[in-house]
Amino acid sequence: MLEEIQKWMMKKKPEAISFLQQMVRKNSEQGNEKEVQLLIAEKLKDIGCEVDLWHPDEEEFFQHPYFCATRTDFSNSPNVAAVIKGTGGGRSVVLNGHVDVVPPGDISQWDNDPYSGAIKDGKLYGRGATDMKGGNLCLLLAMECIKDLKLDLKGDVIFHSVMEEESGGAGTLAAILRGYTADAAIIPEPTNMKIFPSQQGSMWFRIHIFGRSAHGGTRYEGVSALEKAMVVIQEIQRLEKTRNERITDPLYEKIPIPVPINLGKISGGDWPSSVPDCIMIEGRIGVAPDETLEQVRKELEDRMTSIQDDWLTKHPPRVEWFGAQWLPGSIDKEHELMQLLKKRFKDISGAEPVIEASPWGTDGGLLTALGHTPSIVFGPGVTSVAHYPDEYIEMDKIFEAAAMITLTILDWCEVAHQPQQKELLKKEK
Amino acid sequence: MLEEIQKWMMKKKPEAISFLQQMVRKNSEQGNEKEVQLLIAEKLKDIGCEVDLWHPDEEEFFQHPYFCATRTDFSNSPNVAAVIKGTGGGRSVVLNGHVDVVPPGDISQWDNDPYSGAIKDGKLYGRGATDMKGGNLCLLLAMECIKDLKLDLKGDVIFHSVMEEESGGAGTLAAILRGYTADAAIIPEPTNMKIFPSQQGSMWFRIHIFGRSAHGGTRYEGVSALEKAMVVIQEIQRLEKTRNERITDPLYEKIPIPVPINLGKISGGDWPSSVPDCIMIEGRIGVAPDETLEQVRKELEDRMTSIQDDWLTKHPPRVEWFGAQWLPGSIDKEHELMQLLKKRFKDISGAEPVIEASPWGTDGGLLTALGHTPSIVFGPGVTSVAHYPDEYIEMDKIFEAAAMITLTILDWCEVAHQPQQKELLKKEK
């Protein structure tokens, strides 16, 4: 079966690469996911799946405590799902991938058009190539392979092509609410072929630090919000240290800071010769797999009101939670889907897989916490090029990962009978 | 003579207050000084002065090393000067006041329209009331009083009504270049009736601090420009300490930080979950009376390239000098104009004057350094309301200061003969 799958993948390569180019060439920034979703829906129909394409609009979706998006108009952002129904008695699996991409940023930093899909030296270039249209192609190949080889499985295989992952997972939320959950999930985000049973969650926050204005020439008559911001930043650095010292899971052994607190943005003051009376800091706090978002919010907020500083005690920093959030997620390291994927990784690559914790959040958090679908993150693509100019994916890795994932699905969902496949083998001889 | 001057001031009060209202009601933000200058020119003509109203446009002005402005179009910003020519053999004096005002800021923080000129409880309200149209009124009263009482003086009295003081003194530069200098000067900026023989100079600077970007979830792969900015800020705090420890002049005895370095503005980073790769800080550095701007620039720049930090050594912060600058200025504490003003202060108020160093720059720096006209800063108005909402001036103080200044001018320039005045006295009896 392994050889058969690999052979099928090789045969499909040219057509699949061309399809990846088509996906990359559709700019699918948030709010603009429709075209690529229609393309994927068409492909699913071609391979013989019934397709569910819908625009989330129910009240339950918008009112859900885990609804987190910067918009309420999803009219140009449909979700797509397709199910290969099992014969019964088997375990089901969700294959989840997002189609939204982050903006290309400063175009002048790209060698080619950000949506070129250009191919060079075995790499395919373009925004989304790695994050995560290459991964989506793995899933589509798995779906097509199962259909094409007429492999009847006992469990359902449920494919999600979701929108809006990059700022908090509204697409996957909608898929879960529509009932597309399973016994476990695989999400081929770009892990550089590492297997991530745990994913760091994260949230964005904004802190306002207050001072008292004065003329710069008599700055001692005021209280500099910038000096107070430095006190706040030092407290945040201490908090990060405390939070990370608590983490003992060996998955995090090689990660210098398992759940970092990143301060990404600062602004404040409006005149060089005035004492600034307000500074705003925006950042991202990592959430460990065993934490809830509520616990983490409370911990940061409590720290901000207990800083040892007279001024800050009387004028405590104000914490806001805004923008994106990703729930942490984890699957037991000894979960059978983990065992199966590890085995198939070794079968195909000949090497031991690297098992680590993900330094960023994925839709696996929502699938785990809300959909009761423990998720493994594993896919082709190098994380370091995601969100950067000249994003690319090594094409060979896509097919390697696709074969590993397909075989793992067959093991997990169990092949009921493969008469068609035998017939096919005969024919090929 | 003292009583005579005081009597004259009392008589003029209603008319003068009404004129101050007119001045305040003319919004004279930079680039918009024309209307108030026309008003002042008219007043000077009314009291019998020949008026010089001109738009600085000569190459010498724009090319001058002390030219410092955010614009090159002064077509709506004339300067005004008027001279009461002396009979000869006496010392001359410059009376300098600026008409430009800073913007009103957030209008909702004002109780009244910022240009209302409203009067309540002995105070006149409006942007510029204190900084420094109230002071300008003192000078106009002095001019009018000398004319009205027909006091022939030996030395020239040279009145400047200048634009563009609030960002570096281009108006006073133009007046100096046009030849309006003297043996000494009085500038009635709002000192709250303190006498400032020394004025702090200042310059604006901008510092760019560089880091290396990375995803916030793996922030340890980047170098936070914000963390490096904190190192830079600490170095600036040390520099401020060093610079102030050098100042031993007793004038600064009661001033906690004689020449502060104010960090007024910060911004950097563009995404909460990215490591910021550039932070910009804007500030103002105070310049001591015995320092040159060049020395101060070099000291800050040298500090920025010698910070003990591996990253910053390899990626040194970039310092820019932009926007406003004010030269420091000083007059000998024992200068005769100082003695005269101190005496007249005591004569009228009955109290000893407070002698201090000014915590901010004025056009006195340019007058001293370029115009060889040592300057005293002394005027009505409370500094703390300048540049703030609901700016106001206590009206009584204007007339007190005007009398002190007028008497000081008479002493300094020397009354040649006052037959007209004697005649006038007789008539009034």
Automatic annotation (TrEMBL), chains A, B:
Domain named Peptidase M20 dimerisation: residues: 199-307
Protein name: Acetylornithine deacetylase
Source organism, top-level taxon: Bacteria
Cofactor(s) the record lists: Co(2+); Zn(2+)
Enzyme class: hydrolase
Keywords carried by this UniProt record: Cobalt, Hydrolase, Metal-binding, Zinc
InterPro entries the UniProt entry points to: ArgE/DapE (IPR010182), Bact_exopeptidase_dim_dom (IPR036264), Peptidase_M20 (IPR002933), Peptidase_M20_dimer (IPR011650), Peptidase_M20A (IPR050072)
Enzyme Commission identifier(s): 3.5.1.16
Pfam families associated with the record: M20_dimer (PF07687), Peptidase_M20 (PF01546)
Family: Belongs to the peptidase M20A family.
GO molecular function: acetylornithine deacetylase activity; metal ion binding
The organism's taxonomic lineage, starting at the top: Bacteria, Bacillati, Bacillota, Bacilli, Bacillales
